[in-house]
Design brief:
alpha+beta; eight-stranded mixed β-sheet; five-stranded antiparallel β-sheet; 19 helices; elongated
């Protein structure tokens, strides 16, 4: 069971599987290489749910993309030609369009959608069955159902079968009238049954096909429309305790008879792939040696012969069992076979006759044969479409011929995310192996630093998959949970280990951590991988970090406790730390915990305490970043609260971020972005120890953002002032304007002007016209005394009383508001000050005098920079002094109560005696 498994190929909204796809143009382009960003993983396009038309000329598929306005992924249907380079978008509206299915004659495509319906009833489900003509035209809603359809299949060219919960009972309607949204957990008596229905596409007539009182899960319809084979859940708590297994029922759709089949042994059926000749169907089912649970397993395949009424186990001749996919072809089936870090593609030919069938395996060859995790085959068995990728190559959909034992002449079909493939550098990857627990070989995917040079040592981050019945393959597998390229471009190795207990390596490996051995093999496995890289001279032993989600979080925490001196930083999401409370607070507590620990908490509470990292948090030394969704039913959100509080109790460095209303993985794109950005900043601060991190008080695309990213400030401007000749030398003196009887400087005294007085005053080239800054009051007084003597005129520092009105209500000038792009509060102002400390030079926020709009009433001569740039000295009535006016390092609002820093203080002059 993929209990705590989180993989990129699974859309957490539970709608459909996807694969991110990217393709470069056939013609070479000039590449503009940029850094990987969080958006690259979250807003990228993706392709999945592809189906070949009956004539094998077209492929219908689902493209999903991130929609910033809707804060979620949206999906639409596309058609791609399988005979030429041509692509057509079929749908454009709605958040979700999924499960496209061709009609048997290839004329129509049925699909599920939550798009707006012209005359839809608001009380009905948003998701309905829609139809669109495969040759063009607008889609239209076929159904107006109260409950959402769960699965659809064509029965014939005019009829669709679907599964859905029954319409509300009187009991349910009465509670609804009371506006009561209470939940009764596992209410077997009132949970609406899930049944099969059919609907005629011409008149929309709906007919109930089954009258079962349980809950149909997966199912499949025979090609001739005579039968439907279905899995029926018999218990609402099967996931929790695996006591009452679902049954398989063969529904005769012609006479209404039902027959329970696969009654011997433990069968948890999935797939239901019917043979093209309608002789029977294939199912896949987990197999485990455990007497009670199928939590860790491999996948077996069975065939049910309808005419004989007998079940045959298919001898896959493959120890690791079935991989992800199986599809029937005229002479048998094509399947993916579990092979560790990849899947093999195999063709099984059915031989013999009913009921003594046998199957012969032929492993298919081809350039792409070991780098796919899903496929579709045409009805004639001659064309195959599949997704192809590697750990360092983004996926793409391809078409090819099935030619004997070959996947021949592959042609790329989709054309997505070209900006990434043309504009990013991809880390080199390889499959590596090392000795782990029990001296057994462990396999993993190693990602190299982008700037890798042989002979140098680099940091390493272990990125640990969930499950534990998950695995990382030599396929593209990056997402908001594991944005690997962000860390390789930062100069780090990333190791994705397939530790003991991972799937795809056979039953012995999957079951190796059961019955009390959870943690005992996996934790040393992962650390041994780090040892291996250190021994090779690739990794710096003092720069090791870890991250993971779900079971990856659980094992990252185990590393922090078991090897506290090695792991310097951690990011963990939705992981357990205390197992007694886990047992009853997740949907599969007994089937997971009792399997991996060997006992329930009632049988051995001390074991659950012993296994709980919560009681060992004092050992943690690394800074830990924790994430969790508040509506998680896979791992209780309270686990992360316990984690957080325990680390706080021991005065450890920790930060905890909660995603409100989110399940085991965040669905909202804003939450996914937050996770990636927070994690990147955490590693920048505590692992890479760099300063080029995101600035939380700096608004994107503001002037301040620009100078912080550039780490420099542009310098420009001409000298302002009036020419004055003294002793044969031309000097610049401040320009003044009249305000009543007062002649006051139009601008603040510039650096060029002040340096004519003080030859020791130094400033950067190109900044002559910036305000003289860092000026003490005595320096300003000495300047006006020098200027008075030089010109024979009276120059002085203004009195506060005569200029107070000039400095009031001067918005829109060079203050911190301008640079930040908003009005910073005191805390943000302090953060910005810390950010600015990395910039070189004195007072980097100053601008040339006169850069901002001048202030003055109609008919008045204008005065510049009264409300910003540098604060200015004035003399107070009590003989003291202070700096007034706005400054570039302070918010504009007087309520900010901000005092300009010494480097942001200058002065303005007045000509003439004081009144």
């Amino acid at each position: 069971m993929l209990r705590k498994y989180l993989a990129f190929g699974v859309v957490l909204a539970g709608i459909f599987a996807i694969a991110i796809s990217v393709r470069a143009d056939d013609a070479p382009k000039q590449k503009k290489i940029g850094p990987w960003k969080a958006e690259d993983f979250i807003y990228s396009e993706a392709a999945g749910q592809y189906r070949i038309s009956p004539d094998a000329k077209w492929l219908v598929w689902v493209k999903s993309t991130g929609d910033k306005d809707k804060d979620s992924r949206v999906s639409n249907l596309f058609l791609s030609s399988l005979t030429e380079s041509r692509e057509i978008q079929l749908t454009r509206d709605g958040d979700m369009n999924s499960q496209p299915k061709w009609s048997p004659d290839g004329e129509w495509i049925a699909f599920l959608s939550n798009r707006a319906r012209p005359h839809g009833k608001t009380e009905n489900s948003k998701v309905q069955i829609w139809l669109i003509n495969a040759h063009g035209g607008e889609a239209w809603p076929l159904t107006e159902l109260v409950r959402s359809p769960r699965q659809i299949e064509w029965l014939d060219k005019d009829t669709i079968v679907y599964s859905a919960q029954e319409d509300p009972s009187l009991y349910e309607e009465e509670w609804k009238k009371k506006k009561d949204d209470s939940d009764v957990i596992e209410d077997m008596d009132h949970e609406p049954p899930v049944r099969l229905f059919k609907i005629a596409t011409k008149n929309k007539k709906i007919t109930r096909l089954t009258t079962n009182t349980d809950w149909i899960e997966g199912w499949g319809v025979s090609k001739d429309g005579h039968y439907a084979a279905a899995s029926h859940a018999k218990s609402l708590r099967y996931a929790f305790d695996q006591k009452t297994c679902p049954i398989v029922v063969l529904h005769n759709l012609t006479n209404g008879e039902d027959k329970t089949i696969f009654s011997e042994g433990r069968i948890r059926a999935g797939g239901f792939d019917w043979a093209p000749d309608n002789s029977g169907f294939y199912i896949n089912t987990p197999f485990s040696n455990d007497a009670h649970f199928m939590t860790a397993s491999i996948t077996d395949v069975y065939f049910y012969d309808v005419a004989a009424g007998k079940v045959a186990k298919v001898n896959l001749d493959w120890e690791n069992g079935l991989g992800y996919d199986l599809q029937t072809v005229p002479d048998g089936f094509i399947a993916l076979l579990a092979a560790g870090s990849h899947d093999d593609v195999a063709h099984y030919t059915r031989q013999g006759s009913s009921p003594s069938w046998t199957w012969k395996r032929q492993t298919l060859a081809g350039d792409h044969a070991k780098n796919t995790d899903s496929f579709q085959v045409s009805e004639d068995g001659k064309t195959i479409t599949y997704d192809y990728s590697t750990a360092s190559k983004l996926p793409q959909l391809y078409r090819a011929r099935l030619d004997g034992g070959q996947i021949a002449a592959p042609v790329q079909v989709t054309k997505l995310n070209e900006g990434l493939v043309n504009g990013r550098t991809f880390a080199k990857t390889e499959v590596i192996r090392w000795k782990g627990s029990n001296e057994e070989e462990v396999e993993g995917i190693l990602y190299y630093p982008t700037n890798y040079e042989a002979g140098k040592k680099y940091p390493v981050i272990t990125a640990i998959h969930g499950g534990p019945m998950g695995s990382d393959k030599d396929l593209w597998g990056e997402s908001w949970a594991y944005p690997i390229q962000l860390y390789t471009q930062h100069g780090s190795f990333v190791l994705r280990p397939n530790y003991h207990g991972s799937n795809n390596y056979g039953l012995k490996w999957a079951e190796s951590i059961c019955c009390g051995k959870y943690y005992d093999l996996e934790t040393p496995d992962i650390n041994a991988g780090v040892d291996y890289l250190i021994a090779q001279g690739k990794v710096d032993a003092n720069q090791v970090g870890t991250l993971g989600w779900s079971n990856g979080s659980i094992l990252s925490t185990s590393l922090l406790i078991t090897y506290p001196d090695r792991y310097k930083v951690a990011s963990v999401g939705a992981g357990d730390v205390e197992w007694i409370s886990d047992w009853a607070n997740v949907d599969f507590g007994q089937s997971f915990d009792a399997y991996y620990f060997g006992k329930s908490p009632f049988e051995d509470p001390e074991l659950y305490i012993k296994k709980s990292p919560f009681f060992k948090m004092d050992k943690v030394k690394a800074p830990v970043l924790i994430f969790h969704g508040s509506a998680d039913r896979n791992v209780p959100p309270a686990q992360s609260w316990s984690y957080f509080r325990a680390l706080q109790y021991f005065d450890k460095t920790v930060k905890y971020i909660v995603f409100p209303g989110e399940p085991h993985g965040p669905r909202k794109l804003t939450h996914q972005m937050r996770k990636v950005e927070e994690e990147a900043n955490w590693f920048n601060k505590y692992f890479f120890k760099t300063t080029d991190q995101e600035h939380e008080a700096v608004k994107e695309n503001s002037p301040l953002d620009a100078i912080l990213r550039a780490k420099t400030v542009s310098r420009s401007g001409s000298n302002y002032g009036a020419a004055f000749t003294a002793k044969g030398k031309s000097l610049l003196i401040p320009e003044v304007v009249k305000r009543g009887d007062l002649e006051i400087g139009r601008f603040e005294v510039t650096r060029a002007q002040f340096s004519e007085f003080d030859k020791n005053y130094k400033y950067d080239a190109g900044t002559d016209n910036y305000p003289a800054n860092g000026i003490a009051l005595e320096q300003a007084k000495n300047y006006v005394a020098w200027l008075s003597k030089l010109t024979g005129q009276i120059w002085r520092i203004p009195n506060e009383k005569e200029v107070t009105g000039f400095y009031e209500n001067k918005d829109g000038e060079n203050t911190l508001d301008y640079w930040a792009g908003y009005a910073p509060n005191p805390e943000d102002a302090a953060r910005i000050a810390r950010e600015l400390s990395v910039l070189k030079g004195s007072a980097p926020l100053l601008k040339p005098v006169g850069s901002f709009a001048a202030k003055g009433d109609r008919g008045e001569e204008l005065i510049f920079d009264l409300g910003g740039n540098a604060a200015e000295w004035v003399l107070t009535s009590d003989g003291k002094t202070r700096a007034v006016g706005g400054s570039a390092d302070c918010p504009a609002s007087a309520a900010a109560n901000c005092t300009a820093g010494p480097q942001y203080v200058g002065f303005r002059v007045v000509r003439g005696a004081a009144n």
